Amino acid sequence: MNSLPANLFECENHLSALRDMLRGATQGRGRLALVSGAVASGKTTLLNTFAEHAIDQGALLLEAAGSRAESDLPFGILRKIFDNAAMPADVRSEAIALLDGNAPESTAAGRMHVMSQITSVLLRMVDDRTLVVLVDDVHCGDGQSLEFLLHLARRVRQAKVLIVLTESPRLRQEQFTFHAELLRQPNCVRMRLHMLTEAGVAEALSGSLSATVAARLAPECHRVSGGNPLLLRALLEDWRTVGEHGEAQQRPVPGEAFAHAVLGCLHRGEPEALRIARGIAVLGDARSPRLLGQLLDLSVNTVHQGIQDLHQCGLLEHNAFRDEVARTAVLDAIPATARSTLHARAARLLHTDGASALDVARQLVSARQDAEAWTVPVLREAAEFALVEEELEFALRCLEYAHHACEPGPERTALKARLVGVAWRIGPAAAESHLPELIEGARKGRLAPRDVAPTTSYLAWSGRLDAAADAVCALARSARAGDDDPAMTAAVSASAQWLTMLSPPLRDRLPTVGTGSPAATGAPRDMAGLAYAHAAATMSAALTEGQVDRAVIEAERVLQRYHLSDSTLQPLVVALLALVLAGRLDLALSWCERLLGECSARRVPTWQALLSAVRAEIALRQGDLQVAAHQARTAMSRISVQGWGVGLGLLLSTLIQAETGMGHYDEAMALLEQPLPDELFQTLPGLFYLRARGRCHLATGRYHAALGDFTAAGELMDTWRMDMPLLSPWRLDAAETWLALGDPGRARALAEEQLRRGPDDARLRGALLVVLARTDELKRRVPRLKEAVEILEGGDDRVQLAIALGELGRAYRSLGDFNRGRVFVRKAWHVAKTCGADPLCRELMPRHADSGEFAAAAAQPGQGSEAQRDVEALTEAEVRIAVLAAHGNTNREIASKLYVTVSTVEQHLTRIYRKLNVKRRRDLPAKLSDSSLTGTV
Description:
Distance between the termini: 88 Å
Shape: elongated
Strand order of the largest sheet: 2-3-4-1-5
């Protein structure tokens, strides 16, 4: 793979200066160059490039490099100088002999004598050639070698010698004298290397990329690498690696090569720099050198210097790593035990220093150690802040560590309850493993009142109905045996109401509770319990005959009073469903959309899933089958199927009915294969599922299976003493099934029985009238169907309206009124088409119409077909008024004939003019004649 070429970008001036110095040395004017720069700033590259030039010029090149590992080896650098292959053998032997003869314990005068002799040996070689001595990283050299270099520097001013040394800008205390003495030499030149500018980065990239690509990548490369050539090469390598896999990106992204380069920079620098970098990686930034020093047991001054070094080499910017990949690389390179210790120590230091709970908790969680008692309130507070920031997984970890550090008792149980609530946001399945401890806590009376109702709802949702009931009973006994805490009594009452609402068979097992509104029965003190009690009472009202209006009022109160949260999600969903069952789809839709909007930008998949399920049910009851299916599948995708618990009954019922209504029978049958919780048919969602399964069987010709499902739903409701058609209109469904089986007598009996019970729901009454009309003799069929159409036109269910319109059209055709029949059948087809009800559309297709007159009319182009479509937009009442007006009747005459007020006629005519696109009454005959309605009264 091609990598960034080792060119001297933005260092040409330094290289030119060295070449000039070499020319001066060749003329007998000795020179000394001291090159300083941060780690990876290009010092070695500059030295190597110049070395090649010196060789080309015929100079005798002697090279060496300092090493921190050899800094205690006497004359280590000097021995490397004489080990060069270019050194004549006799000179090398003489110099080595002098070095070997110098004992380590020799005096300063003795060492000076030896160095003078070695200097003389070197200078004898410059008679014919220029001597160039290059020492890289001289700051890592041993003391004796540095003494020699200083000694040599003082004696080369009139010799053909050039000495080039590179050093770090950060010197140790013992190196200051050497550095100062070098700079005192009149022939010494100091050079400083800096990191590349953005323009320098672009120039560097252009060596291996096109100018256009280089210019595009340069800004981001400079931001990430800080102009550090080593990091820049690694970044380019990562970018090329991604490109080789067919994923070339618009911007460079640091990867494995970059991470290794970061570690390389740190290991090449001072030891303290590596320690300080690790401390910064642990703390996240270097804003507090004092805290960093305490963490690492370093002085503040040392920390300041280390931070400065890391800035100079491009690793830091504004006291933090330039890129998270760099920080992660440093963290991952710390041994596990040392890293854990650093995080634990950082947590305590931050806590003592008054840092935020969130900052302290991040260190505690990263430490992966058993938390101490003092950390419990910190972790709990941090979890709440993390939830505000949508960091769900971190909030869960905080609560788990706090729970582990807490001793068994009410506080530990409260932590577990909060943990379950947070886990529920991600998905109910994530909370499953925590529920047994809550059951045990409830049995031992450790649940706080505020956690009773939510815990009960979580258990019930998961299908643990018996465990939920036992928990409520145990808490009720504890409350009676103890101080009779009003808050606990109210919480138990709210939980019992909730369970009774969800699973009526539990009614006889639970403590007796009132069925009125919470305000009348003694409201719980905590908002969670109050929300559950209020919502349960609202649903009970919706399922009680004669209390639908009250249920609507209470549902709106629930939705207005309680803010969407972990503890109010299920009550708000139940309030929405109460509005749905009460037939107020307009209110339900408005509130549902509002709640979905609240959580659309948040990481709350469970909230979004449950609200989407309600939105799907609303769309289904409005006849919008495609929206219903889409919303239901969206809900199913938010959380796993396993997490839906008994709520799966509602979700599947909506989706099965939507798919069935659209004619997607294979998809609907596949959904019937979905495993169900064993307890589902002890709950209200079980009734929804039974109806959906029955409707699917009915649509696919499995009539007896459908009849079994509808009858089973009726038997369950009878057993539960809540035979409410709003919940499951099983008699209507069974009547349609008997019609399909060819037994209109039984169908009529069931429909009439349901009508005698006085259904409050107009949608249900309209559907029952259609069933009865299908069992009537022909002459009585039309009035009943017209009543059904009028009722359904004022409602929301467009699919049921399309069915009624289609039946009315067929009835007119059977009576020989083909014109009117054509209008209603076509209107039914259009309504069904907008709903996505393809099977119903096929049933109403022209080829199924009597005598083919519908197909002929549909095929006629031009003005007539346009007028026909306009007339189809009219309701049945509007058609009657339009025809009478076209025949010349005045408004008063029309009102008298139709038994309505003159004002009603005027309002209808205004709508008729708008729909038919006419401006006055005298235009009506022509418009209606095109639609073949003029002769029909």
